[in-house]
Amino acid sequence: MAPQPRARLAPRTPPPRRAGGAAPGAPPRWLVLLRHGLPALIVLAGIVSMCFGTATSLVGGSALVGAGLASWLVGWLYRIGVEGDRSREAEERARRYFDRNGRWPDS
Protein backbone atom coordinates (compact mmCIF):
# COMPACT_ATOMS: atom_id res chain seq x y z
CA MET A 1 0.00 0.00 0.00
CA ALA A 2 1.49 3.37 -1.06
CA PRO A 3 1.79 6.17 1.48
CA GLN A 4 -0.65 9.01 1.12
CA PRO A 5 0.81 12.27 -0.16
CA ARG A 6 1.12 15.10 2.35
CA ALA A 7 -1.27 17.94 1.98
CA ARG A 8 0.36 21.18 0.84
CA LEU A 9 -0.26 24.13 3.09
CA ALA A 10 -0.69 27.57 1.63
CA PRO A 11 2.31 29.84 2.19
CA ARG A 12 1.94 32.18 5.11
CA THR A 13 1.46 35.82 4.33
CA PRO A 14 2.22 38.49 6.90
CA PRO A 15 -0.88 39.91 8.57
CA PRO A 16 -1.96 43.40 7.51
CA ARG A 17 -0.76 46.30 9.62
CA ARG A 18 -3.06 48.61 11.54
CA ALA A 19 -3.47 52.28 10.78
CA GLY A 20 -0.97 53.34 13.47
CA GLY A 21 1.77 51.19 11.92
CA ALA A 22 1.68 48.60 14.70
CA ALA A 23 1.35 44.91 13.97
CA PRO A 24 -2.09 43.38 14.63
CA GLY A 25 -0.84 41.38 17.63
CA ALA A 26 0.79 44.39 19.27
CA PRO A 27 -1.17 46.32 21.90
CA PRO A 28 -2.17 49.88 21.09
CA ARG A 29 0.11 52.69 22.27
CA TRP A 30 -2.36 53.98 24.86
CA LEU A 31 -2.41 50.54 26.47
CA VAL A 32 1.39 50.38 26.63
CA LEU A 33 1.40 53.83 28.25
CA LEU A 34 -1.24 52.70 30.71
CA ARG A 35 0.63 49.49 31.54
CA HIS A 36 4.09 50.98 31.96
CA GLY A 37 3.78 54.76 31.97
CA LEU A 38 1.27 55.10 34.79
CA PRO A 39 3.20 52.88 37.24
CA ALA A 40 6.41 54.70 36.28
CA LEU A 41 4.77 58.07 36.99
CA ILE A 42 3.56 56.83 40.37
CA VAL A 43 7.07 55.61 41.27
CA LEU A 44 8.55 58.90 40.09
CA ALA A 45 6.06 60.83 42.23
CA GLY A 46 7.13 58.73 45.21
CA ILE A 47 10.80 59.41 44.58
CA VAL A 48 10.14 63.15 44.24
CA SER A 49 8.10 63.05 47.44
CA MET A 50 10.94 61.33 49.31
CA CYS A 51 13.34 64.08 48.23
CA PHE A 52 11.67 66.53 50.62
CA GLY A 53 13.34 64.72 53.52
CA THR A 54 10.70 64.92 56.24
CA ALA A 55 9.53 61.79 58.02
CA THR A 56 6.04 61.98 56.53
CA SER A 57 7.35 62.57 53.01
CA LEU A 58 9.62 59.53 53.31
CA VAL A 59 6.73 57.33 54.43
CA GLY A 60 4.36 58.74 51.82
CA GLY A 61 6.96 58.49 49.07
CA SER A 62 7.76 54.89 49.89
CA ALA A 63 4.03 54.13 49.85
CA LEU A 64 3.78 55.67 46.37
CA VAL A 65 6.79 53.69 45.15
CA GLY A 66 5.21 50.50 46.51
CA ALA A 67 1.88 51.33 44.90
CA GLY A 68 3.52 51.98 41.53
CA LEU A 69 5.49 48.75 41.64
CA ALA A 70 2.43 46.81 42.78
CA SER A 71 0.28 48.18 39.97
CA TRP A 72 2.93 47.22 37.41
CA LEU A 73 3.28 43.75 38.94
CA VAL A 74 -0.48 43.11 38.89
CA GLY A 75 -0.60 44.00 35.19
CA TRP A 76 2.39 41.77 34.48
CA LEU A 77 0.85 38.81 36.32
CA TYR A 78 -2.43 39.31 34.46
CA ARG A 79 -0.64 39.23 31.09
CA ILE A 80 1.18 36.03 32.08
CA GLY A 81 -2.14 34.41 33.00
CA VAL A 82 -3.76 35.43 29.73
CA GLU A 83 -0.77 34.14 27.75
CA GLY A 84 -1.13 30.75 29.46
CA ASP A 85 -4.75 30.59 28.35
CA ARG A 86 -3.73 31.39 24.78
CA SER A 87 -1.09 28.66 24.72
CA ARG A 88 -3.58 26.10 26.07
CA GLU A 89 -6.06 27.09 23.35
CA ALA A 90 -3.34 26.78 20.68
CA GLU A 91 -2.40 23.32 21.94
CA GLU A 92 -6.06 22.29 21.92
CA ARG A 93 -6.35 23.43 18.28
CA ALA A 94 -3.19 21.45 17.46
CA ARG A 95 -4.63 18.34 19.13
CA ARG A 96 -7.85 18.65 17.13
CA TYR A 97 -5.76 19.01 13.95
CA PHE A 98 -3.79 15.90 14.94
CA ASP A 99 -7.02 13.95 15.51
CA ARG A 100 -8.27 14.92 12.02
CA ASN A 101 -5.05 14.53 10.02
CA GLY A 102 -2.87 12.11 11.97
CA ARG A 103 0.10 14.44 12.23
CA TRP A 104 1.07 17.38 14.39
CA PRO A 105 0.70 20.78 12.67
CA ASP A 106 3.82 22.63 11.52
CA SER A 107 3.31 25.74 13.69
Please explain how this structure is put together.
The chain is built from two helices and no strands. With 107 residues, it is mainly alpha-helical. The protein has a domain of 73 residues. α1 runs antiparallel to α2. The two termini are 29 Å apart. 5% of the residues are buried. The model has no long low-confidence stretch (mean pLDDT 84).
Entry keywords:
107 residues, 2 helices, mainly alpha, single chain, 0% strand
Q: Topology, pairings included?
A:
Blueprint: H1 29-50, H2 55-101
Q: How many alpha or pi helices?
A: 2
Order of helices and strands: HH
What is the helix fraction of residues, given as a range? 55-70%
Terminal Cα span: 29 Å
Give a summary of the structure in a few sentences.
The chain is 64% helix and 0% strand. It is mainly α and 107 residues long. It has a domain at 29-101.
